[in-house]
Prior knowledge:
It is built from ten helices and eight strands.
Amino acid sequence: MRKLFFANWKMYLSDEEADALARAYAEGALSASVDVAVAPGFTALERVSRALAASKVALGAQDAFWKDEGAFTGEVAPKQLAALGVKYVIVGHSERRAMGETDETVARKAAAVAADGMTPVVCVGELKEEREAGRQEEVVRAQLVAVLAALPKGADFVVAYEPRWAIGTGTPCEPADVAAMHAAIRSIVGADAPILYGGSVDPKNFKPYLALQDVDGLLVGGASARPDDVRAFFEAFAS
Ligand code: PGA
């Protein structure tokens, strides 16, 4: 399968900046050897959707609620995202787990996203102490099992392995450790689900990850929102 470069712009970029960067993605993706998706902030979704229409870049969102309608102030419904042309929705990002998201809420969100015809990007990953204690595979397995149990049979999903200590720290997980974890995840999810690596990926360090057998792509945060880094990624992906 073609590898996927998935950009998570987090709470960076004004809507104007997001629009301009989306146009750079649309152009870069024309000659890229990878599939590309971007997840802007909610307020920029409509603009970015327009900027990407007619391009090869898929639209993503960074979260969604688990109901499609109701008295849920401040939440965003999967149905609202689907109507904007969103294809992928990140669920269970560690920055949200750190703010109280649980395996149960992540599972409900993933199921709701799938029910509206979109693909959940399920983020999993261990804390530093858990890796130091050798518990990383056990932790990730528990996170995954909770979500898989909630997903409708046959639903498409993507897994993103993002060790929590590697996100936004400038210290990515060593490729050998990523290879071991992705093999463990593969044994749980099977051959069809793409498995992305994320955590301090940048244009200088990404290549060894994409060379690994069970790494089907990258989930890139900070660097994916920096125009210079984006240019460098697309230069490297030019086929
Ligand atoms: P980072 O974030 O690339 O800035 O480490 C990755 C992510 O949070 O998805």
